[in-house]
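Researcher: I'm preparing a figure for a lab meeting and need a structural model of a single chain. I don't have an experimental structure, so a prediction will have to do for now. The sequence is pasted below. Please return the structure as tokens so I can convert it later.
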Amino acid sequence: MNAAIHRVWALSLTLSLANVANGAPATPTVPPLTLERLYSLPWVIGTTPELPTWSPDSQHLAFLWSDAGSNTRDLWWADIAGHPAERLTRVADAVVTPNPDPQLALRDTEAREHDPGITALAFTADGHALVFSHKGQLWRAPATALAPPVLLVPQAPGAHNLVAVPGSEQITYADAQGLHLLNLGLPAPRSRLLYPLTDAVAIESLRVSPDGHAIAFLETDSRAITERLIPDYLGPETQAPAIRRAFPGEPSEHYRVGVIALTGGEPVWMDLQGAPEDLVFGLAWSPDSQRLLVDRGDLYIKHRWLRLLNPATGAGTTPYEERDEANVTAEWWADWAPDGHSVFVISDRGEDYQLWRIPLDGSAPHALSDGRGAVFSAAVVPTAGGIVYVSNAARSEERTPYFLPFGGSAIALCATPGHHEPLASPDGHWLADIHSDDGTPPELYLQPLIVHGPPAPLRRVTYSPLLAFAQYPWAVARYVDFPNIHDGTLVHARLTLPPDFDPHHQYPAILGSVYSNTAHNRFGGRVYHPTWALDQYLVRHGYVIMNVDIRGSSGHGKRFRQRLREDYGGVDVEDLYSATRYLASTGYVDAQRIGIWGSSYGGLLTSMSLMKHPGTYAAGVAGAPATNMLHAETGEMRTMMDPRSRAAQYRAASPLLYADQLRDPLLFIHGMRDDTVLFQDTLTLAQRLILADKDFEIAVLPDAPHGWDTQGLAQTRYAFRRLVSFFDRYLHPHAPL
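Model: Understood. Here is the structure written out token by token.
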């Protein structure tokens, strides 16, 4: 790979989509918006920029991106002066020789689709260069587009958490081998292994102390987890490789926090209190590097405590605790106040997640945010004199950045609706922001972090969509509320109508992809599945699409979230049923042609919806359905608790109990390599349906893991073609196109 990086460096530096910014004419011919086009490279919506990283002097912002709609991201940077972004590497330009063997050529194509390019980056402490990870190697790129990158470490498998050591020429990082220190100040840069790892042990995160003397790191140990066999039928002989996979009630990962000096030696292990499997949500050094803050919670997230630790001895105190037996989510965050005498936390000790100050002298916590909406993320910015946080205080579907001065009131930092992911510069003068909304794919923006007066305008850094994007009539969502028909609770939903919508026409409708946290004003709504393209295809062919923030979703108050406790497949299914009643009441949706689909938890919701409300849905598609909660991951115990004491609740959450009630058409889509929701569970439900004389269909994906719609575009296209043809068969859309 070394030669490839240097070979392609000679190619000229171009920013192909800068023509969009300069008003270049659009391409004259636009191909039809088919599933094949939507789920092929290059992405018509472009590539989302990732990992924005400020230089130490706050003059430049580095990030990972492709300007050509590829999945393979290069290293880019932009400056605060407003010059066009520059591409610093050319890993995506490596020339691949076509394989004459057709089967191997298909594999090569799939490998290129899966190639992420550069996966991690960090500025050096002096800001003169960037270190990045690519294909198991570490490289240094000078902070200029005129010089090629230099290989630093030829073997750094899975390198992550690259962090510059303050005041030095060193970078610390973790990889599959352990915790390392890379010294760039030597004539020949050298990496030293500070702490080695054994099999099934990993470093999840690390923090370098402000004084540059020590590293705190979070270690996860999976050795106690049961090994299970996942059959593989694609080789010459059937194989059954073992993977570590815990079921609820079984031993899970163990966590511990260590502190190690950059000079080497053995780690000092922190006294975290609690059990080894209890969770760690964050690490933070005090401003003077003398104490370490650990945000800790039990396995069921019913008990949270902050540990204040001496990094030299591991001993500590617990200055703050909170308990809530009804809790089902842990959107927690904690960090130090600049004075070192208190800490800031995100907590739902009130009606929803808000910012609080926790004094370390034992006095009462003090609410900082105003209690409207919920706070989803936060970052202390000492140089700006406050906290930048994201909230939906304006509207529940929004994620707006705010600035909260120490001792003051919050100020909105941006007037642009949508989803924002802000990152303040070290000097507190600038804000980088990855923003999208219902009609705009994610882009990277810059703006001054102005804390007085109206919000500053966003300056666009990336231009991701292809030129053809603007030629398509993209449907934009609207938002509605309706009551759950049983308890009257208002439910929020995202509604997408056909581009040529006629309120006097009756359309078929699809609920989906059903899941929690789907009614967001961001491109595509849901983050983890590329259903933006499927939704757009369906609405263009005469479907109404609805995404529902079912119980358990964030941003609607603590009681809304906590109602899901021990009730998967219960109140959430009733929220979806209430959505069908709302759609039927609109006059433009045919109540006899409503479908539903979802994957994983959404597959459970789909199966349960058809079985608990027979005759309501004309058809349902359950992707990788979590049909057996006893085989779920241990994280589901946050909602369902331990199956040994909640056997009835676990049984009630399984469609196996309701298989004989299925009346409506059901299609399963499942990957055989899935180790999150076992393919075995779909087969078990299929057998139960056979014994109950029920009809159903299965689309089997032999090479797909749990993310069957995100890993491998050929199988994504195949699966979505099956889904669309299934709905077309039973919902009979009257497409105007």
